[in-house]
Amino acid sequence: MSPQMNTTELQEVKKRYNIVGNCDALNRAVDIALKVASTDLSVLIVGESGVGKEILPRIIHDRSPRRKERYFAINCGAIPEGTIDSELFGHEKGAYTGSVGESEGYFGAANKGTIFLDEVGELPLATQARLLRVLENGEYIRVGGTQVRKTDVRIVAATNINFRKAISEGRFREDLYYRLLQVSIQMPPLRERGNDILQLFRLFAMQMAEKHKFPRITLSEEAQQLMLRYKWPGNVRQLKNITEQMSVLSEKREIDAETLSQFIPQDPESTQLVPITPAGSHSYENEREMLYKILQELHGNVSDLRREMTSLRKQLDEVRGLGGASAFGGVAAFEPEASALPTAVHNSESERPAPVEDADAEEIKDQESLNLNQMSKQMLEKALERNGGNRKRAAQELGISDRTLYRRLKQYGLDNK
Q1: In the chain, helix, strand, coil percent, each to 5?
Q2: How far apart are CA 31 and CA 174, in angstroms?
Q3: Which SS3 state, helix, strand or coil, does residue 140 take?
Q4: What is the per-residue pLDDT for 407?
Q5: φ, ψ of residue 30 in degrees (nearest 5)
Q6: Using CA atoms, how far apart are residues 103 and 85, in angstroms rounded to an integer?
Q7: In this predicted structure, what is the pLDDT of residue 94?
Q8: CA–CA separation, 107 vs 113, rounded Å?
Q9: pLDDT of residue 96
Q10: Closest Cα partner for 55 from 248, 162, 187?
């Protein structure tokens, strides 16, 4: 814990907002929220899904000079792409089909207040450009309008995506990222919070017992160790759900390791156990193994692609050597529209069209595109298979957004699987 941290104030705030746990990373996140609250700096909260990122924006607003003004929490990933600009920035009457009246949008309604943009990484690029303008000079234009409007809004954003990867893939604007990153707060995943896991379990168990009037469940020593070793991919949200399930479904009131294992998902992708290391130490063995596995898969994909391209080039060389397309073989099967190529068989060298090399280059380019599409489809199918058809987990494994995953599933005809 930082020596500048006001321990008394910190504990009071945690009690008020029902924040359970006392690990250093959690205390540091709350402390930064308290320190930045009195400013107008934009804040970006980073953390995995289910860690409780939504608590910090509320603390920031309630402790800021804007606390008497309006506060809006908006899930950017839950608003359809076609209407998100209208939701955020408002629209004029008749701006689109069905808009019978005008709307001021969240940025108009929240003037002088605070807006929390959850899952900000899911914003479309066009909306990101509008948001950047608001952050730079407080200006925006309603959908279907021409009048420039002003707003004074404090923005707190949160995300669970890898921004560096999203920027490199062109899915997120780098300039917007740095505007949001005036202050960054990292929320720790549950698996790194140690004994906070057991404290949270006791809280959720007590809440269920009081609500439904039955004896509270407890954990045996072995079950506690299993709790501490479990990876918790769903973080606090998953722990709460499992505690509630055991409270209702388990006949035992003391949960042993065998009983607990029945409620923990058996998917190997989500039940990986993490080693418990002494305080102040860290093991990089798991990280190395994961990196080796990823590198091996990438090497295999690149090798397969290289073999396919070598085979394709060999076939094209044979075509050139024979002076026609009779040896084109499998390549023609990939490119049914290349019907002009066979007619060149009957022409002499002088009669053959001049840009033969360009045509060959186009065939190679088209084949590369087809091979890459096939690889992408196979990667999607394998990711879905490994995650038991769970699209959200498959998207996280592939490092893409849910929206991108759904678009590719539709593109490859996998959306009904």
Answers
A1: 55, 10, 35
A2: 27
A3: strand
A4: 77
A5: -65, -40
A6: 11
A7: 67
A8: 9
A9: 63
A10: 187
Name residue 246's amino acid: M
Q: Which among 204, 200, 220, 223 has a CA at the least distance from the CA of 212?
A: 204
Backbone torsions φ then ψ of 255, nearest 5 degrees:
-85, 120
- The answer to whether 132 and 181 are in contact (CB under 8 A) is no
Specify the DSSP class assigned to residue 143.
B
389's CB contacts (< 8 A; 6+ apart) are: 417
Return the SS3 of 246. helix
Q: Let me know: does 120 contact 401? Beta carbons within 8 Å.
A: no
**Are 20 and 203 a contacting pair, CB within 8 Å?**
yes
Cα 110 from chain centroid (whole Å): 27
Cα 14 to chain center, whole Å? Answer: 27
Amino acid identity of residue 209, one-letter, is A
CA distances from 399 to 76, 230, 383, 396 (A): 18, 23, 11, 5
CA pair distance 397, 410, nearest whole angstrom: 19
Please tell me the distance from the alpha carbon of residue 137 to that of residue 76, in angstroms, as a whole number: 22
Strands 43-46, 154-159: pairing is parallel
Q: Which tokens is 60 given?
A: 């920031």
**CA-based torsion, 123, 392, 271, 378: positive or negative:** negative
Q: List, run by run, the mean pLDDT of 10-residue segments along the chain (417 residues).
A: 67 92 94 95 94 95 96 93 90 68 89 95 93 93 90 95 91 94 94 95 95 93 95 94 94 92 71 46 52 62 72 71 46 39 39 44 51 67 80 78 78 71
Q: Which residue bears the tokens 């080039």?
A: 313
Mind spelling out the 3-state secondary structure of 280-291?
A: CCCCCHHHHHHH
The answer to whether 178 touches 163, Cβ cutoff 8 Å, is no
Beta strands 139-141 and 148-150 are antiparallel
| pLDDT of amino acid 293 | 57
* Residue 322 host element (H or E): helix 285-322
CA distance 139 to 151: 6
Whole-number Å distance between alpha carbons of 358 and 367: 14
